[in-house]
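Can't paste images in this forum, so I'm doing it all in text. The chain is below; anyone willing to post the predicted structure tokens underneath?
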Amino acid sequence: MESAMNRRQSVDLGRWIIGLLLIVLAVATIFPFIWMASTSVKPMGEVLGSPERLLPVTYDFSTYTKIWSEVPFGRYFLNSLVFSCSVVAIALFLNSMAGYAFARLQFKGRNLLFILILCTMMIPFQVTMTPLFLIIYKLGMIDTYQGLIIPRAADAFGIFMMRQFFLTLPKDLEESGRIDGASEFRIYFRIMLPLCKPAFVTLGVFIFMGNWNDLLYPLLLTNSEQFRPIQAAIALFAGKYGTDYSFVLTGLLLASVPTLAAYLFAQRFFVSGIAMTGIK
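Text version of the structure:
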């Protein structure tokens, strides 16, 4: 009886320790956002005079109106939406097709080709950005939506993730489709694709967040405000507006809203998509 009570107490103590650790990690994760929101409403003198103070003494919301009137922030926002959403739509289609082919179709050199695609994940963007810039320049697509979207139309991670998910689906589904005379594309589009909604949404969130928050890539391929995405534009605020930190942090805070909304919208699919991908 006493040993059972001791075990129960040790289990309760372990749960309290884990809960306390999770609370500390949650506070550490959310604190930068709180500090960013607080600094965005501080006057410039207070930002420079006491940056360590979390809550402002006086609240100044003028940066939220100034950022829309003094710079084409709406244009930057639209550019990021067009860029990110277009990449998501095209990449999901191409990645899912390639993932289906590697998971279900038998063709010569399939495994070797898949390994070569995975090897590209180990090459940093800094290695390929010069050849990429030269190719886009030769094609005349610098400072265009096409130049931003086409190089991101497919990626190794998306192909790998969709392949792993397609491997979890039973083969009886596609075999029944072949018996009914369906083509391979019809089997993929009408039978297999509707079943991979969790992985589809999860990959879409990853792609959207990766492209929305990217900085170096759009800086490399855009020159004008007409096509510059929001993160690249915010990176130029410091030099253009003399390091107005409240101005910069206001832009960052507004720029983080779509990614948070995308995650909240896809949250119920996110966990199941991660859990089911890779279960063979």
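The chain has two domains: 2-40, 71-276. The mean pLDDT is 84.
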